[in-house]
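Progress note, sequence design subtask.
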């Protein structure tokens, strides 16, 4: 991305806002566990449902209040940010690797390879993925590696379909034909010419996929099939607070706001990148 495109990106206020929010969330996720205000798993029953500091009865020591077990919400949100973002980034990397590999193979080699991969894409896109993931988690077990793997497999079709279209365009360009004519191998051509030219598409897809994965992971954890207690995640925190919405609205609302901020931020970044990287948008 050259300097001109960077300047265009930073003129987009929504994109810059999304970048700032995403940066803050990543910094929060990297916050050392030793520096947490309190143990996020430690229950203090006498402090249960203590309100945030800006409400009468709140204390500065627990600025976001406590949940129904007296656990500090700020500490749990910090750890939940780390867990949710780690799951989202890991799943997106898996999706990107599988989808880019499949899309490039389909677009570059064509023929039977293209037909098989695209039919697999059609099959996956025909299924209600959230229901399929819930069913598989229920069957395979609610462990973190299984959840990351399933979320990663849920998104590869989006990459494959768009990367295939980009590869079909790139492979017909003159410099690719020239590279093929002088005897370069298919893998060499893909590495030197195809992948650099589809990188912008994959970056844009990745930002939108981060938002999608965060929503799916939160939904699954809310249903009790994702991250398991006592490890906090945004979805499990909302599930914990749904029965106390009248006595302690902050228990569910604060992690819910974190989800909204994260999803909105990555969508804003994706919109900004799409606008500057897609010539038709400019």
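Output:
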């Amino acid at each position: 991305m050259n300097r001109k495109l960077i300047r265009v990106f930073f003129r987009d206020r929504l994109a810059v806002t999304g970048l700032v929010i995403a940066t803050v969330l990543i910094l929060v996720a990297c916050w050392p566990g030793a520096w947490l205000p309190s143990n996020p798993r430690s229950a203090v029953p006498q402090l249960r449902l203590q309100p945030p500091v800006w409400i009468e009865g709140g204390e500065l020591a627990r600025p976001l209040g406590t949940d129904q077990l007296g656990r500090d919400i700020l500490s749990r949100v910090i750890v939940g940010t780390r867990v949710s973002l780690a799951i989202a980034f890991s799943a997106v990397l898996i999706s990107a690797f599988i989808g880019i590999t499949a899309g490039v193979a389909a677009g570059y080699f064509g023929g039977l390879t293209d037909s098989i991969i695209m039919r697999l894409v059609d099959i996956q896109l025909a299924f209600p993925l959230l229901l399929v993931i819930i069913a598989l988690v229920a069957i395979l077990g609610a462990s973190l590696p299984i959840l990351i793997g399933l979320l990663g497999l849920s998104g590869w079709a989006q990459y494959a379909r768009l990367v295939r279209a980009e590869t079909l365009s790139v492979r017909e360009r003159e410099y690719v034909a020239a590279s093929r004519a002088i005897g370069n191998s298919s893998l060499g051509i893909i590495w030197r010419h195809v992948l650099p030219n589809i990188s912008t598409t994959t970056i844009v897809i990745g930002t939108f996929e981060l938002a999608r994965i965060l929503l799916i992971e939160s939904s699954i954890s809310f249903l009790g099939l994702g991250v398991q207690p006592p490890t906090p995640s945004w979805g499990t925190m909302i599930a914990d607070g749904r029965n106390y919405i009248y006595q302690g609205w902050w228990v569910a609302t604060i992690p819910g706001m974190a989800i909204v901020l994260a999803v909105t931020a990555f969508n804003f970044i994706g919109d900004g990148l799409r606008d500057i990287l897609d010539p038709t948008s400019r």
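The mean pLDDT is 87. Work on this subtask will continue into the next period as scheduled.
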